[in-house]
Amino acid sequence: MDNKVAARKAKVITCKAAVARAPGQPLSIEEVQVDPPRWTEVRVRIHFTSICHTDLSAWKGENEAQRAYPRILGHEASGVIESIGGGVTDLEEGDHVVPIFHGECGDCDYCRRPDTNMCPKFGANPMKKTMTSDGKVRFWSKDRTEPIYHFLNTSTFSEYTVIDSSCVVKIDPNFPLKKMSLLSCGVSTGVGAVWITADVQAGEKVAIFGLGAVGLAAAVGAKARGASQIIGVDVNPEKFIKGKVAGITDFINPKELLTPVHKVIQKLTGGGGVDYSFECSGDLLALREAFLSTQMGWGLTLLLGVHTKPDTLPIHPMELFNGQRLVGCVFGGFKGKTQLSDFAAQCVQGAVDLDQFVTHELPFERINEALQLLKDGKSLRCVLSL
To answer: Where in this chain does the record put each Alcohol dehydrogenase-like N-terminal domain (predicted)?
Structure first.
């Protein structure tokens, strides 16, 4: 169907959504209205969504600057395109898709560079609360008296959502949608950090700070690359069980130590430290220990965790003269529109076992239970079916 015809055909949809109305309060399951997609936008019927720590942080209101209520959170999902707006050339109704919070317009100087996945127009921005095309919302209360704000380009805690086509990736319709939802953030971020940003090679040593879904995905990626030593650091000993399956060879619980973590890592690695460290916890102390645990001369620390407080880096400038480096890594370095569909195919072919990241499955109406599971450290990913 021609996209102009599809845009005229699309009508307002009333559906269920989980609405955040205040920080830390249970999400409210409500009927909302979802407007048709406008220029370069698509409307997606969400089939599966899951909860990431970024959603948890926003729900708790940990960063006051990003508070906006009412708001529909969520950014890990999979679904099928219900309708398309004008100007959409690479997607059609019925396409199976994965929303991505870190988009790729394909036209800017950043998108044209092979060495970055930044896109000023559609990159991750938790402060952004409206659509890019016109600065307005597509969600409304059932009686249309109250606008409902967007989140991270996607807002997947809704049966239907409107997303710019730059933040939607088409996938093979034969791929299982439930598993594909994991590629919207956590798994892609962890594996991509190892494969793309760090480009870990066989025989190298890594340390991972924080063994949530992102950290375990980094471990899976390191194991697949043939890392000789994968050290996992976490204060929750229950994470070590999953970590062993993911490929972690050594475990460190900072609560059980009398010496700094980086000293223990240096000892475990024969004195020099690891080639790469991945900070996935969002904790400043962990970031410092991750940096100090890397090898002098070439060690690289990748910052993956979300730090919500306005604190500065816990590193003295002179420490950088030892040759160790620190870089931030968004979405694992993946260019979503360009590279994610190929990664999905690799996962289906067995490069990454996605099943190990799903610890719980619940119907969408029980989303608050899923939030609590993540908050309590009892789940990696709870997949919600809509």
So the answer is: 40-172
Q: Does residue 85 register a pLDDT over 80? A: yes
The answer to whether residues 31 and 142 touch, using CB atoms and an 8 Å cutoff, is yes
Please answer whether residues 186 and 217 qualify as being in contact, where contact means their C-beta atoms are separated by less than 8 angstroms: yes
Q: What confidence score (pLDDT) does residue 210 get?
A: 96
> What is the structure's pLDDT at 64?
65
From the centroid of its chain, how far is CA 369? Answer: 20
- Tokens 């060690």, residue located: 299
Residues for the chain: how many in total?
386
Name which of 373, 386, 362 is nearest 53 in CA terms. Answer: 373
Strand 41-50 versus strand 381-385 pairing type: antiparallel
pLDDT of res. 222 = 98
Q: Is the pTM of this model over 0.90?
A: yes
Token pair recorded at residue 348: 């289906």
CA distance 336 to 347: 15
β-strand pairing of 168-170 with 96-99? antiparallel
Decide if 300 contacts 327 (C-beta within 8 A). Answer: yes
| Rounded Cα–Cα distance for residues 102 and 151 (Å) | 12
Structural domains in the chain, CATH included, are 3-184+353-385 (3.90.180.10), 188-332 (3.40.50.720)
**Cα separation, 341 vs 170, whole angstroms:** 7
Residue whose tokens read 């991270």: 152
Encoded amino acid at 72, one letter: I
3-state secondary structure the chain: CCHHHHHHHCCCEEEEEEEECCCCCCCEEEEEEECCCCCCEEEEEEEEEECCHHHHHHHHCCCHHHCCCCECCCCEEEEEEEEECCCCCCCCCCCEEEECCCCCCCCCHHHHCCCCCCCCCCCCCCCCCCCCCCCCCCEEECCCCCEEECCCCCCCCECEEEEEHHHEEECCCCCCHHHHHHHHCHHHHHHHHHHHHHCCCCCCEEEEECCCHHHHHHHHHHHHHCCCEEEEECCCCCHHHHHHHHCCCEEECHHHCCCCHHHHHHHHCCCCCECEEEECCCCHHHHHHHHHCECCCCCEEEECCCCCCCCCCCCCHHHHHHCCEEEECCHHHCCHHHHHHHHHHHHHCCCCCHHHHEEEEEEHHHHHHHHHHHHCCCCCEEEEEC
- Residue 187 sits at the vertex; the CA angle it makes with 184 and 191, to the nearest 5 degrees, is 125
- Pairing of β 168-170 and β 139-141: unpaired
